[in-house]
Design goal:
about 400 residues, alpha/beta, about 35% helix, globular
Length: about 400
């Protein structure tokens, strides 16, 4: 819980103490205070829903919401992942629970980016964080609320343990990968092919060294089911080349500028796989916007008009950005955008949001609306920046105020 929020909670508790004391003091002449009625009984289903809701609140969802934004603001990436999972799967009953979850090693953002494809159909598994020593408390709490049961879509698995991530005790788990990030991403792509029962429509290549350029791939993978493979700036790893050769007719999209993945590597990708195109901007903020705007048949978000969902995270917090991927594949479905400061919205991001700002002429109830998920606490993305994002997402009347 952020320090500021702890302070607010403390003040509220202190105020309640004084209020109760004042009430009891005013009853000094009474022999006996009136009894408090017992609370009504809670049905089992209602109790489960209340438990899941309480867990979500403890994990940082929501911490601060405005008309057009909702913040996932846990104290760390594990709490944010758990809160995202419970936002997507409220788990009030079996119909709002996932079949499985993907447990990712918190020490490797690359695994989280690649594992985001498991959030796509047919698996629809949200991401939770674990480690070589086991899951943290936030993940344990989320697992208890989500209670995945496995299904035919997951081959009976209740969880997929990616890389070195260890599952919770008693949770039926399928291990995936376990080597270096490049090899683990290739193993995830193979698992994706097996569970989907068909080849992907596209393949995404991201930088294994530059997380700020790779993070937007997670949101797209979750939405599309396109696997994410990795390259270095100057080399196409053997595991990635082998994975590409399995699907020689599948088009490949490289994310990021030549500073992240060089032109010789792109040529090597073309030799190993299908037709290659690059999607990029000059920096992480503009690269994320480029993917949000991109339209090439059925590849790319093509978000160039109002009426969409968005997710905004910090460019230097790739793990937070990656575990937020389920938000891009549910609800108001939308791309991941990046900000590079806690206080100031980047000019390029502000211009993009102005370009897709919703409006109406006569009837606001018939308009299109934007909604933005803000991922990270107030130290990552300040409240003033969230307020600016809210204003940019606000529905406006064409031609000025009514």
């Amino acid at each position: 819980m952020p320090a500021a929020l702890k302070g607010i909670v403390g003040l509220v508790v202190l105020a309640l103490v004084f209020i109760v004391a004042a009430i009891l003091g005013g009853r000094g002449d009474e022999d006996e205070a009136p009894s408090t009625p017992a609370p009504p009984p809670v049905a089992a289903g209602e109790a489960e829903a209340e438990s899941a809701s309480q867990t979500a609140a403890q994990l940082g969802y929501p911490t601060f919401a405005t008309n057009n934004t909702t913040r996932i603001g846990g104290g760390d990436a594990a709490s944010n992942a758990a809160a995202v999972a419970l936002a997507v799967y409220p788990s009030a009953d079996a119909t709002t629970q996932p079949d499985a979850v993907a447990l990712v090693d918190a020490a490797r953002w690359q695994d989280a980016v690649a594992a985001a494809v498991l959030m796509a159909a047919p698996v629809r598994a949200p991401l939770l964080l674990s480690s070589a020593s086991g899951p943290p408390e936030a993940t344990e709490q989320a697992l208890a609320a989500l209670d995945p049961q496995g299904s035919a879509r997951t081959n009976g698995a209740k969880a997929f343990a990616v890389g070195a991530a260890q599952p919770a005790d008693g949770l039926e788990t399928t291990p995936v990968g376990g080597g270096e990030p490049v090899a683990t991403a290739a193993a995830i792509a193979t698992l994706r092919d097996r569970l989907a029962g068909k080849p992907p429509a596209h393949i995404v290549i991201a930088s294994v060294e530059a997380p700020e350029f790779a993070a937007p791939a997670a949101a797209w993978a979750a939405r599309s089911g396109d696997p994410v493979l990795f390259a270095t700036k100057d080399n196409l790893p053997a595991a990635t080349a082998t994975a590409l050769r399995r699907h020689p007719a599948v088009p490949v999209y490289v994310l990021g500028p030549t500073a992240a993945i060089s032109s010789p590597v792109v040529r090597a990708i073309a030799k190993a796989g299908g037709e290659v195109r690059r999607v990029s901007g000059e920096d992480p903020v503009t690269s994320a916007i480029a993917l949000a705007r991109y339209d090439d048949g059925n590849f790319g978000w093509n978000v160039n008009d109002p009426g969409h969902g968005f997710v905004i995270a910090r460019s230097d917090s790739p793990l937070d950005a990656a575990v937020a991927a389920p938000l891009s594949a549910s609800g108001t479905w939308g791309p991941l955008l990046l900000t590079d400061s806690a206080d100031t919205l980047p000019a390029a991001l502000r211009d993009y949001m102005l370009d897709v700002k919703p409006g109406y002429t006569t009837d606001p109830t018939r308009a299109f609306y934007n909604h933005v998920w803000v991922v990270g606490d107030e130290e990552a993305i300040g409240v003033s920046q969230q307020a600016e994002i809210d204003e940019l997402a606000e529905l406006a009347k064409a031609g000025g105020e009514p």
